[in-house]
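Lab channel / #folding
Pinned by the channel admin:
"Please post every new chain as: sequence first, then the structure tokens as a reply. Keep commentary short and put observations after the output so the thread stays searchable."

First post following the new format, from NK:
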Amino acid sequence: MEANSEKVNSSTSNDGFNVTLAEITNYEWEAVLTEAERPVCPLYATKLFQKSTQLKEVGDEKGERVYRFLGMVASPNLRPDNVESPFTGFGVDNISDSSLDVLSNLLPLTRDPAMRARFGDLLWVKHKSPKPDYKAAKVAAQA
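Reply from TO:
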């Protein structure tokens, strides 16, 4: 996994976030989730975007990107009736492979069940090369 982490940490994305696993894990982002009224992704997204704005205002560009990225991941609404595109929301259709790789590596480190499920769902739906991420789907279902 170490070689894979290095690859993910040095990659850049074309979705505008350009976050790495190391950057995300340098922040206590899951602590922000506890501020939500209920443990659901749409409320998490609000808190994550608020934190992103706060960090931007104090000049923490990396933190702003990390929390904006996580807010984007938490923000989509689920449309279970649409098999081809079950998520709608900010940025999900344009998420890059490198950002999906970061999520894949973040998935086993994440303690919050709703975010684990969201990461797993997005990896299952979006990470198609070379084949769908069956392990991520299993984690999403168990969360």
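NK: The chain is about 60% helix and 5% strand.
TO: also worth noting, Strands lie at 77-78, 87-88.
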